[in-house]
Amino acid sequence: MEYLAVIVAGIGAFVFGAVWYSVLAKQWVAASGVVTDETGQPSNRSNPVPYITGLIAVILVAGMMRHTFTLSGIDTMGKAALSGIGVGLFFVSPWIATCYGFAGRPRQLVLIDCGYAIGGCTVIGIILSLF
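Below the sequence we write its predicted structure tokens.
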């Protein structure tokens, strides 16, 4: 059952990301400087590699969060949601901010991508608590 929980939680975070980046698509494209086609969409949007990589990545995050939650006795939705927020806000976001800061990336990109990390980890925590 734990493998199913991890996969479902990873898919949940992936779906959250699809919604997050759909809502913030114009801002993200402008801030990231990604190459776009004539319609203003990222030119690599039909390439499956980033999507497959992203899905595998969030499944790995979900797996580690499940392991950590189990060892820490995080067993309610409230604790799992708060812990997910904490993972996104205090583990993932500082790392993103550090990398982007040294790369000279725009603040808006940092906020968009860190927002996804916080929201995605929260979704993972909530879904893991359901299993």
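The radius of gyration is 15 Å.
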